[in-house]
Write a structure and sequence with these properties.
By secondary structure, the chain is of the alpha/beta class. It contains three helices and three strands, in the order βαβαβα. The model has no long low-confidence stretch (mean pLDDT 93).
Amino acid sequence: MTLGVVVRADNGGLAFQTAALCRMLQPAKVLIIDSRAFNGAGLKQHPERFAAYDSMITNGFPTDAECHRFLDGLTL
């Protein structure tokens, strides 16, 4: 089983919940959504919260190519 998790890296509630989920589940890959594209350019991002994981960062909503690259090799 190879797990991937889509996360937020700002200071919102969903970001803290997905960080906690990663600590519990230890995914193989993490897709970090940089939410500044749709939540304001001044919103601080904290990708370092996911430094322990194989991760990639998208600028806003992921493109089809980014989704395919993230999903490659994952089973869940």
